[in-house]
Amino acid sequence: MAQVRCRLGHTFDSSKDPSCPQCAGRRPKRSAKAYGATESPGVTGTTSFRGSLQDEGADPSRSTRQASWAAAAPPHATTKAPWKPRAAAPPTPAAAESSPVSKPMKIDRDPVVGWLVAYDGPLQGADFRIHCGNNSIGRDPGNRIRLHDADDAIHRKPHAYLVYDPVTNTYALRAGDQQKLVYIREESSYGAEEATWTPVWNAVELKPYDEIKMGGSKFVFVPLCGEHFRWEL
After folding, report:
1. Integer Cα distance of 123 and 145 in angstroms
2. Can you list the domains of the chain with their CATH numbers?
3. Buried b vs exposed e over 51-87: b needs ≥16 C-beta within 10 Å?
4. CB-CB contact of 171 with 150 (8 Å)
5. pLDDT tens-digit profile of 3-40?
6. CA distances from 27 to 20, 73, 140, 189 (A)
7. What's the confidence (pLDDT) of residue 51?
8. In sequence order, what E strands does the chain have?
9. Alpha-carbon dihedral angle through residues 152, 156, 159, 160, given to the nearest 10 degrees
């Protein structure tokens, strides 16, 4: 008696069984006829196979269904379309408006007509634009000529008014409605060691490069319009 062990761990007597009977019981032998085999005429013990082999548990209609699915599949399911580059998207309205050539330049209907330039005091080096009509001067943001808060001796409300008349093409300076006054330098004091300042009570005509004093700052008046230029408004 020769006990051997198969690869699955079963023990059997090799003198009685050439192979493991337990493994043979799990996968029983099937005759060639089960797979459609027939004996060849004139040849003993020889078989030939007809048709296609099928497993015993297979569904015979499976191949038929697969064939019908392949026939009904759309062309793009089996054929890969050639690659095409993606077309560029058209520009959006916002992008078209942001283009510098598509939007005309906006014309300012209230152009600059001159400047006040601070040459001395807390506001030294700053410049302020003058426009047509009445220009209120003060530290409040509502003034047309809004001065910085560096010189707190200047009123927030209109400290003075600087006026440009486009009809007569002239400039004028007049006092505001506050307690502190505005001063203009006398023409006779130019070139002298000491400047002479005259308070402005009523409107006085301004000439190019007249000097003005408000609070602790001194300004020079620089006109744009005059004998050689004026706006056509």
Report:
1. 13
2. 112-223 (2.60.200.20)
3. eeeeeeeeeeeeeeeeeeeeeeeeeeeeeeeeeeeee
4. no
5. 778 877 788 777 777 788 888 776 545 554 544 545 44
6. 11, 39, 103, 129
7. 45
8. 3-5, 11-13, 37-39, 47-49, 112-120, 127-131, 133-138, 145-146, 160-165, 170-175, 182-185, 197-199, 204-206, 211-214, 217-223
9. 120
Q: CB within 8 A of 226, min separation 6: which ones?
A: 169, 208
Contact 194, 202 (CB under 8 A): no
**Of residues 63, 41, 67, the one with CA closest to residue 51:** 63
Q: Which residue has tokens 């000491």?
A: 194
Is pLDDT of 143 > 90? Answer: yes
User: Residue type at 73?
Assistant: A
Least confident of 45-59, 105-119, 213-227: 45-59
DSSP string, 37-77: EEEPTT-TT-EEE-S----TTS-TTHHHHHHHHHHHS-HHH
Taking residue 24's Cβ as centre, other Cβ atoms within 10 Å add up to 14
Token code pair at residue 60: 């015979």
Give the Cα-Cα-Cα angle 178, 179, 185 (nearest 5 degrees): 90
Tell me how far apart the alpha carbons of residues 106 and 205 are, in angstroms, rounded to a whole number: 33
C-alpha to C-alpha distance for 60 and 156, rounded to whole angstroms: 100
